[in-house]
């Protein structure tokens, strides 16, 4: 980026910020009243080593090979163009020798919180010395993030090798089917093949969209996790939580254990009915498991969780917001269920291992602080329900006297609902757009923002880097008071691009 005031000097503080993180002071001073236990727990676990999001390969040959794979994948149907069927992915699994049958799986669906929950499940399983494969979407910065082994994104070289390993079989299926395999279907095949090749002890799999006809749904998850359901992708999944639950309930398989987060009543009814039909066992948040207590802590929160097998106290979670605490409860119950805890097996998991696992969790692009003075937070909220919990989390964790929003969204999303959720906490909003072909134009988004905020609180900057600079400048006007911040939100793509700008500067 050119050398100028604003965003260009953001990265001057990143080295200092990394040191601050390492020293565990990750919050505003006025919120640093905390039990001594959380400092001890964090010191034991330590901050995650390195950035959990991979950068482009340093080796030019590897970088070139990865780019070629990305370009080939880019010729296929994108993730928003769907033909609701698992026939193609099933055909690919068949010619690959059914790699998804080589390991047990925990299958995660829902509207919000899937990726964070998957990361927590993965951390817990790793802490109990199981080798894991995790498949999540979309990615924040690099496509290789989607496939993880043992808690780390697959190496670029291995990603390329896996693609070339499955490519001949993909082409066989392409030739035999009415439609070619989509981008997401090929990646799903790659993930399942990579997990079998590793091999992993357990796969943690997040659906792409829905459940019944999602490409991931060729596994038989011994544990099915359903995070909170709300309205999103209504053109494909349904116009009510109950209708959406019909699709998402497709991950509930015969005899599985279902971990059910708190749900709207109509969604819960649909999911419980599905569980009865397939003789699945259900554990419900707020009934069989849940959050007993939580309090703000330096760099996150302190939790007491009730699992299906017992109570776990003194848990430090280095993530912000009540929604993350609920995700943690769901993840814990899922891992207990995987180990057979609960019911007739009335025992608990080792508490120290559970605490160590949660203290190590990261969730890039979800309430992630990337800069101080002023504080800049990235969050991938892209629907009204997600925006509401983010607004609550920011208010609770940071207590800004003045917060500037930077929002860029995708076409087809309920942007009015998102903006209305943020209106009470944003002093001003800078609307912009990301580089995705699905990005909503800045002027179109601004028209909605003016209706929600009023013209005097809306600024338009078509380029994301300019928008970040403008927001930081607006926040710095209050810098002398030490209470201003910036929240970048609206889509995963927006957050990923902003993250790159702040990391590279």
How would you explain this protein's 3D organization?
The protein is α/β, with parallel strands linked by helices and 505 residues long. It is built from 17 helices and 17 strands. It has helices spanning 14-22, 36-45, 60-73, 87-96, 114-127, 156-176, 183-197, 234-237, 241-248, 265-277, 322-338, 351-359, 384-398, 415-422, 442-453, 464-476, 492-504; strands at 105-109, 132-135, 147-149, 152-153, 202-206, 223-226, 257-260, 281-284, 290-297, 300-306, 311-317, 368-371, 375-378, 402-407, 428-431, 458-460, 484-489. The strands form 3 sheets. It has an 8-stranded mixed β-sheet, with helices on both faces. Strands 12-13-17-14-15-16 form a 6-stranded mixed β-sheet. It has a 3-stranded antiparallel β-sheet with strand order 9-10-11. Helix 2 (36-45) packs across helix 12, helix 5 packs across helix 11 and helix 13 packs parallel to helix 14 (415-422).
Structural class based on helices, strands and sheet pairing: alpha/beta
How many strands, which pairing sense, and closed or not: the largest β-sheet?
8 strands, mixed
Quaternary structure: single chain
For the record, give the distance between the C-alpha atoms at the N and C termini, rounded to a whole number. 6 Å
Order the strands across the largest sheet as they lie in space. 4-3-2-5-1-6-7-8
Portion in strands: 15-25%
* Fraction of residues in H or I helices: 40-55%
Q: Can you give me a brief rundown of this structure?
A:
The chain is an alpha/beta fold and about 500 residues long. The model is unreliable at about 1-50 (pLDDT under 50).
């Amino acid at each position: 980026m050119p050398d100028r005031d604003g965003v260009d000097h953001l990265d001057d503080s990143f080295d200092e910020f990394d040191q601050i993180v390492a020293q565990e002071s990750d919050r505003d001073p006025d919120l640093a009243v905390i039990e001594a236990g959380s400092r001890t727990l964090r010191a034991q676990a330590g901050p995650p080593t390195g950035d959990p999001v991979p950068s482009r390969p340093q080796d030019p040959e590897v970088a070139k090979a990865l780019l070629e794979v990305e370009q080939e994948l880019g010729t296929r149907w994108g993730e928003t163009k769907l033909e609701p069927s698992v026939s193609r992915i099933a055909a690919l699994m068949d010619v690959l020798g059914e790699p998804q049958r080589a390991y047990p799986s925990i299958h995660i669906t829902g509207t919000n919180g899937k990726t964070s929950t998957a990361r927590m499940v993965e951390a817990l399983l790793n802490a109990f010395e199981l080798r894991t494969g995790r498949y999540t979407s979309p990615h924040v910065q690099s496509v290789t993030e989607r496939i993880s082994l043992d808690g780390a994104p697959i190496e670029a070289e291995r990603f390329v090798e896996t693609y070339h390993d499955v490519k001949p079989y993909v082409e066989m299926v392409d030739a035999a089917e009415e439609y070619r395999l989509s981008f997401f279907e090929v990646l799903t095949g790659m993930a399942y093949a990579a997990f079998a090749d590793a091999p992993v002890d357990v796969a943690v799999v997040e659906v792409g969209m829905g459940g019944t006809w999602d490409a991931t749904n060729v596994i038989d998850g011994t544990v099915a996790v359903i995070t909170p359901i709300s309205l999103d992708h209504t053109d494909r999944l349904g116009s009510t939580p109950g209708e959406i639950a019909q699709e998402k309930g497709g991950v509930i398989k015969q005899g599985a254990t279902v971990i059910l987060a708190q749900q709207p009543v109509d969604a819960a009814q649909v999911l419980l009915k599905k569980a009865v039909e397939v003789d699945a066992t259900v554990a419900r948040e707020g009934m069989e498991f849940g959050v007993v207590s939580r309090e703000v802590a330096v760099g996150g929160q302190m939790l007491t969780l009730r699992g299906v097998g017992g109570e776990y106290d003194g848990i430090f979670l280095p993530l912000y917001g009540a929604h993350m605490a609920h995700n943690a409860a769901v993840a814990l119950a899922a891992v207990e269920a995987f180990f057979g805890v609960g019911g007739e097996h009335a025992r608990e998991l080792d508490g120290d291992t559970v605490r160590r696992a949660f203290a190590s969790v990261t969730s890039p692009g979800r309430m992630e602080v990337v800069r101080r003075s002023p504080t800049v937070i990235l969050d991938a909220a892209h629907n009204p329900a997600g925006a509401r919990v983010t607004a609550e989390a920011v208010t609770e964790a940071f207590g800004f006297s003045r917060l500037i929003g930077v929002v860029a969204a995708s076409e087809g999303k309920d942007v009015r609902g998102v903006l209305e959720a943020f209106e009470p906490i944003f002093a001003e909003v800078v609307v912009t757009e990301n580089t995705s072909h699905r990005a909503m134009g800045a002027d179109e988004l601004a028209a909605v923002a003016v209706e929600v905020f009023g013209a005097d609180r809306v600024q338009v900057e078509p380029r994301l880097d300019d928008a970040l600079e403008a927001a930081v400048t607006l926040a710095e006007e209050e810098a002398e008071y030490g209470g201003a911040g910036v929240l970048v939100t609206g889509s995963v793509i927006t957050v990923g691009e902003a993250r790159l700008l702040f990391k590279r500067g």
